[in-house]
Amino acid sequence: MEQKVCCSFQPIRDEPYVLFRKQQNTMNQIKEMKTAKEAHWKCEVAELKAERDVIKMERDVLKTKEIEKKTELHSLLIKIVRLKRNMMNVISNILISLFG
């Protein structure tokens, strides 16, 4: 089956064209600037990613220390509760022995 094509438009990229020397130089300069900027931003992004990774590692270390300190605090609180209970038992025993 054959299709009729009337009034078709082709994009410029499909058509051969020639630039003048000045236009070509300008295009080359634009490409060079684009390449230079892309390289610059790739370096910037790489540096920022490395910095982010260092910060993440430092955060993980701090989280680990926080967990250790919370565990230590919890064990100290348990010791305080035990000491208070023992002290109350001793005081009760003393009062019972004194007042009968």
Key attributes of the depicted protein:
single chain, mainly alpha, 100 residues, 0% strand
Q: How would you characterize this protein structure?
A:
There is one protein chain. With 100 residues, the chain is mostly helical. The chain has 1 helix and no strands.
Write the layout of secondary structure elements.
Elements: H1 21-99
Extract low-pLDDT stretches: none
Order of helices and strands: H
Main sheet, how many strands, which sense, barrel? none
Residues in helices, as a percent range: over 70%
Strand content: under 5%
- Cα(first) to Cα(last) distance is 117 Å
Backbone CA Rg: 39 Å
Number of helices: 1
* Structural classification: mainly alpha
- Give the overall shape, derived from the CA principal axes: rod-shaped
Overall pLDDT level: 88
DSSP summary, beta strand count: 0
What is this structure, in a nutshell?
The protein is 79% helix and 0% strand.
